[in-house]
Amino acid sequence: MEPAPPTRRAAAAPGPWPNDAAAIRRRNLGLVLRHLADHGPCPRTEVAAATGLAHGSVTALVADLADRGLITEDDVQRSGARGRPGRPLRLDPTRAAVAAIQVTSEHLRVAVADLAGVVFHHDTVPHDLAPGTPEAMADAIAAVLADTVTRLPGFAGAETDSAPRPVLARAVIAMAGPVLDDAAQTVVVAPDFGWMEPVALRALVAASLPAPTVVIDVINDANAAALAEFHALPRDSRGLVLIEAGTGIGGGVVLDGRIHTGSHGIAGEPGHVPVAMDGPDCVCGARGCLVSYAGPEAVFAAAGLGDVLHHRGIQAAEADLLTRLRRADPAAVTALATAARALSAAILSITALLDTDEVVLGGLLAEWFPWLSPTIETHLAGRRALAPALGLRVAPATLGEEAILTGALGFARRAILSDPALVPPLPAATH
After folding, report:
1. How far is Cα 90 from Cα 258, in angstroms, rounded to an integer?
2. Is residue 246 domain-resident?
3. Nearest Cα to Cα of residue 97 among 429, 404, 415, 402
4. What is the strand order of the sheet 167-175 is part of?
């Protein structure tokens, strides 16, 4: 697996402009490195023109990035134009690595990539920590991270002038449950793991790591998948909503290339968008939520497969459902039609509020897409006819089960490219 290649979208755009000298320099380092990652190799003059930075500033920033081992200079190239020949700069993706850990109820799935997005390590570590304590899970994650460091290329060998030892610069933990976009990146609640109170998971993992520590982020796993699907889009887009069905219905929102979590970490939870106010009660306290009509349990029950789900599991129920759908079994077709109508109502509401270009259906919804799509398209036809320029597109997810790790790796990679000061300078002997 390799993450989607870097794009020119706003996803890599930094936040508000800093107002102190140190922060401005860090931001400018990111401007230069991101340009080289997306458009290099290229000479300093091109970097200056593209970033709006003065040529002298670019020279100083390039020296800093070279000291950190993040860029290299090619031999002089003559373009045929007048003036001094240029020495193209390029990203050295092997200097730093990023890691992603997907936390599931049974496993810790790990992937490690370089700064070009090339994945060079995968692992799946089983655990029996769900339900369990956050501290035990943090210890398990820290152990995986510590092991990951030993698997970096060149870790066991001596550092040389030609091959400086890479560093693990950032790790992203993708966790089921809403995560606040605050300094602590608090997991608000994680029922699948028995965590019914807020958990400062990042701090717990950091405390369990041996020094030196790696910078850690915690994000919602569906948001990671949404970010991956956004970057996998075949055309330019500013916004995406992911609606996916697994054990229930979750999702994520990407606006202007950034994960949008809302005030309490629960933005992008389409399963609890009400689509029928006189519908059945939902565990969230509302009535008629999308999950009550399009969630796996509701769909399997309506198709006559409730017993299969409860006795043989979701995979067996899904296999039977697909077989019945291909045979045009009336109960199965009706179940999908009901789900499609509910999804249509949710999509119309969500897109009217967020004005996104894309709605991506993932998980089981992607497998059901051929039967969902006709009804959804019928319900969207009126709005499309009224405002054809909106160009709303509803499509199945393309990345499957790898979307979460791919999105988490991409999140970590863009964070390093935007703030390369996190990568320490090379030892003096390697300069």
Report:
1. 26
2. yes
3. 415
4. 119-126, 107-114, 96-103, 167-175, 215-220
HSE-up of residue 92 (Cα within 13 Å, Cβ side): 21
- In 3D space, the residue among 271, 267, 286 whose CA is nearest the CA of residue 354 turns out to be 267
Final residue in a domain of this structure, among 60, 91, 122: 91
Can you give the pLDDT at residue 1? 38
Q: What is the pLDDT of residue 2?
A: 38
The last residue of a domain, from among 32, 62, 91 = 91
End-to-end CA distance of the chain: 33
Query: What one-character-per-residue DSSP string does 291-355 give?
Result: HHHHSHHHHHHHTT-HHHHHHH-HHHHHHHHHHHHHTT-HHHHHHHHHHHHHHHHHHHHHHHHH-
Tell me the whole-structure pTM to 2 decimals: 0.84
CA angle 55, 59, 64 (to 5 degrees): 145
The residue ranges of DSSP E strands in 11-118, in sequence order, are 71-73, 89-91, 96-103, 107-114
- Would 150 be classed as within a structural domain? yes
- Residue 164: predicted pLDDT: 64
| 71, 30 contact by CB (below 8 A) | no
21-39 vs 403-418: helix crossing angle, rounded to 10? 130
Residues of the chain with pLDDT under 50: 1-15, 80-81, 83, 156-160
Q: Is residue 231 part of a domain?
A: no
Q: Among 56, 55, 62, which Cα is nearest to 40's?
A: 62
Quick one: how many helices (H) and strands (E) in the chain?
Answer: 14, 12
| 44 and 102 together in one domain | no
CATH of the domain at 185: 3.30.420.40
- Establish whether the linkage from the previous residue to 212 is cis, with ω within 30° of 0: yes
Residues, the chain, total?
Answer: 431
To the nearest 10°, report the CA torsion of 414, 416, 418, 424.
Answer: -170
d(CA 215, CA 206): 8
Q: Which of 171, 178, 104 is nearest to 137 (CA)?
A: 104
DSSP, res 132: -
Residues 44 and 114 both lie in one domain: no
> What's the one-letter identity of residue 87?
R
Quote the CA–CA distance of 292 and 252 in Å, as a whole number: 19
Domain of 20 in residue numbering reads as 10-91
Q: Are 235 and 278 in contact (CB under 8 A)?
A: no
